[in-house]
Amino acid sequence: MTENDLTTSLNLQPVSPLPDATRKYFDVCQEKLGLIPNVLKAHSFNIDKLNAFTGLYNELMLADSNLSKLEREMIAVVVSSINRCFYCLTAHGAAVRELSGDPILGEKLVMNFRTAELSSRSKVMLEFAEKVTLESHKVNETDRQNLREAGFNDADIWDIANITAFFNMSNRVASALDMKPNDEYHSKNR
Asked: Which percentage of the chain shows pLDDT scores above 90?
């Protein structure tokens, strides 16, 4: 593996050969996304860690929810912007551009989500994600009630909190390990 092949600043080699289930998962990613996300490659040195990461990611970001995929990706971008996570801003910014059809929206979410043309529902959701990221110890019933008044139910609030927490965790890992985003993300949906 050359330096250009490394997905992080660590020299951790993927399991070889990959288990059949992992290889099939990577094949699905390649087919649907046109790439295997480097975050998955980075985790592939330990299949149990990869499976734990993908299990939680898939449940939060892809499973049935009253939150749209765009709303979930918007949370990822706003949290990653606060945390200055280059990997997640790049990858999830591309997803926001794709899902919204708006190349400007992702950029505004990165800089200051309050400048984006968003519904009041989205603004309340992102304000909650911001507060959880910056000062979760100050979240109170008023914050949850604001979400309810914007149309979210308690299961939605659970999802918003968990997606926010997941990206706070993954941002820190990606930044600490200098995780490199796939080059393809930079030009997607522009």
From this structure: 88
